[in-house]
Amino acid sequence: MIRKMTVDDIKDVQQIALTSWRYMFGEYIPEEVLIGFIDRTYSDLMLKKQIEKTTVLLAIDPQGLPVGYISYTPIDIDGESEVTALHMLPSHLNSGYEELLLAEALQSLSEAQNVDVYVDERSHDLQAFYVNQGFVLVESIQEEFEGLPVETLHYTLQIKQHAHT
How far is 76 from 153, CA to CA, in rounded Å? Predict the structure, then answer.
């Protein structure tokens, strides 16, 4: 089942985020840097703001437990939206929940021109997931994450053709 996140889900989302980040980046990002990032980015206040400014959908397993989530921005004036996060508990990776979350998000973004996502270049599984969903690589960006150099890959999915007038 897929449903919108509420403030009652904050602790579950914090746990999913921490578990997912550790699983994906634990060997690349020192634990204290990871914990500091999670504490700031996924604080109660920040998640309440995220619920107000973006759409956050949860994947719920048959036992009624949240196992993953996706967040995305509203369509902007240029007809664009961005998937800002897609995280799953490692125990539920590749079980179809990622596709369900993305499909639900894309359904609500059907009026967008395109949807963008930014992925760490070391996240090979996530890159493959987005490519399999029709996203195409646009560019590679050298950035810093918490003071550490990273390469971020920008993918986009065209939803609607741009109107030519």
Answer: 21
